[in-house]
Amino acid sequence: MRDFSGDHRWLSLNTATVRKQGDFIAIAQACAKHGIRAVSPWRDQVAAVGLDNAVKAVRDNDLELSGYCRGGMFVGDASRHAEIRDDNRRCVDEAVALGAPCVVLVVGGLPQYSRPGSAPSRNIVNARAQVDDGISEMLEYARQASMPLAIEPLHPAYAADRACVNTTEQALDICDRLDPNRTGMLGVALDVYHIWWDPELMSQIARTGKDRMMAFHVCDWLVPTTDILNDRGMMGDGVIDIKAIRAAVEAQGFAGYSEIEIFSHGWWDRSMDDVLGVCVARHMTAV
Amino acid sequence: MRDFSGDHRWLSLNTATVRKQGDFIAIAQACAKHGIRAVSPWRDQVAAVGLDNAVKAVRDNDLELSGYCRGGMFVGDASRHAEIRDDNRRCVDEAVALGAPCVVLVVGGLPQYSRPGSAPSRNIVNARAQVDDGISEMLEYARQASMPLAIEPLHPAYAADRACVNTTEQALDICDRLDPNRTGMLGVALDVYHIWWDPELMSQIARTGKDRMMAFHVCDWLVPTTDILNDRGMMGDGVIDIKAIRAAVEAQGFAGYSEIEIFSHGWWDRSMDDVLGVCVARHMTAV
Questions:
Q1: Which of A158, A165, B110, B139 has a CA 20 to 30 Å removed from the CA of B184?
Q2: Which helix (H) or strand (E) holds B193?
Q3: What is the rounded distance in angstroms from the CA atom of residue B228 to the CA atom of residue A79?
């Protein structure tokens, strides 16, 4: 397990963490100032400044990417199929332009939430089948672009509205079905917030393998959690044994960035410098 | 699958659903008035009126019990062991006095939340080991009292503070370890709110068997959920395919009550008659 206590060279910032404090250009500049070497941008943040300007900001600030957030939302009415397919193809193209190592997939929940306007459904089994089909189709396009896809299992609290892939086992089962030969083009993005509770956590991390371990995200689970979406904690402020999970992930051969991804009204209310300073400090003590 | 559309004979009321509207005596009387034949009381509601008075209210109103809530909270400092053991023994004694068919176990999360005052820990693996030990010890006492124990897996959102048993598979694995001969003294209480999201839902229900299917609870998952503990929905108002889950549970031979258990500020703010009237109506249409 790598020693993070002396520097923060393996810290990446998911740009949603400071999305209220500035645009992507400002975030890229702030990262450079704080010695943060990598970011994982969200599509809406890139779109807000324009893809070309985002690419330039990455280059100008000598940044790497640890991922691109996000493709997915595969579940929706049949009439939306072309929209869903094309949206995800654009996502792959943007990831290529930005030099991302992978596209992170948030696969979508029930159709009415995944693609608003779709007919309401309670059929999560059917939603999961649509996810398989959607990833399969996107993977063909991604292969041609040599852009790996990383399925992110989301906490079961988001099963209805954000992602019906809710365990690492389920994500790896999809990888087995759609990429049985392990081409390196399909894997998982593991976020401690989503997976820390799982009784199968360690056995499924051990199953993942280096080739499918495409991204590792950190934050913390607060008790109490006052907002089901936007009350993630800073590493060290909650109950997740982050170091134990990182040790297991690195035992698989993972040697990439620990990407800090915090959605939190509390942290959005603080200054960019303040948040990045705390991220750097906690990366060294609590990750 | 039983037809619930014509009457509500298989409706049981978990008394937490109307805990703000009256004491256990008042709830028992209201149930009788609404033709509700069974209840599942909480220990604090029984204690508030006194066990003898609660027993009398059950008899006077010709009620059955579908369970007794709750034993458990097995995780805590070693110095708390006798307290935890004795607390759970009293719970068994109360369940016997009330004529409950089982004690529902909410097993506890991390020690600082399960038994406040215990030393803080992030070690959920250790918490789970304590749960095994605690159930094992309680089971000896419960056997002598012929009082079955029903492990309730809780939604992963409660893994830290309420229960570190978070899937049906995990609960059934405990049953296999502690009661391999399937004596009928250890099983599970399945609540649709906690398990609906599980990719292994149907396979684990199929694994359960009639002898371990001790209780079935219903409510609904709302989108958005505005309070992680107290925003459960009335059946039909959310995204859970309750009928599909009940069909699977009954395919195992379960023929007991569907117990309505709703923690919700919204429903606590309405009158007892109003809530029970809606429960009866939704039991016939949405369960």
A1: B110
A2: helix B192-195
A3: 34
Q: In chain A, which residues have their Cβ closer than 8 Å to the Cβ of B225?
A: 157, 228
Q: Specify the CATH architecture of the domain A11-285.
A: Alpha-Beta Barrel (3.20)
Residues of chain A in contact with residue B197, where contact means CB-CB under 8 angstroms, are 124, 156, 159-160, 164, 166
pLDDT for B141-195, tens place per residue?
Answer: 999 999 999 999 999 999 999 999 999 999 999 999 999 999 999 999 999 999 9
Instruction: Please give the model's pTM, rounded to 2 decimal places.
Output: 0.97
Sheet containing A258-260: give its strands across.
A64-65, A38-40, A11-14, A258-260, A213-218, A186-191, A149-151, A103-106, A68-72
- Axis-axis angle for helices A51-60, A81-98 (nearest 10): 30
Residue A5: how many CA atoms within 13 Å on its side-chain side? 4
pLDDT digits (tens, 9 = 90+) for B37-68: 999 999 999 999 999 999 999 999 999 999 99
Confidence (pLDDT) at A130: 98
Distance of alpha carbon B250 from alpha carbon B203, whole angstroms: 14
Contacts of B132 in chain A (CB under 8 A): none
DSSP annotation of B155 reads -
Segments in chain A below pLDDT 70: none
Starting at the earlier edge strand, list the strands of the sheet with B38-40: B64-65, B38-40, B11-14, B258-260, B213-218, B186-191, B149-151, B103-106, B68-72
Closest alpha carbon to A175 in A138, A147, A141, A212? A212
Question: Is residue A11 within a helix (H) or strand (E), and if so which, with residue range?
Answer: strand A11-14
Q: What is the pLDDT of residue A258?
A: 98
Rounded Cα distance, B124 and B165, in Å? 10
Nearest partner of B168 among B197, B188, B139, judged by Cα: B188
Structural domain spans, chain B? 11-285
Model pLDDT, residue B226: 94
C-alpha A16: how far from its chain's center?
10
The mean predicted confidence, pLDDT, of chain B is 98
Residue with tokens 């195992």: B252
What was the pLDDT predicted at A162? 98
Instruction: Say how far apart CA B175 and CA A152 lie, in whole Å.
Output: 31
- How far apart are the C-alpha atoms of B72 and B108, rounded to whole Å? 6
CB-CB under 8 Å, B221 with A113? no
A123, A228, A239: residue with CB nearest B228: A228
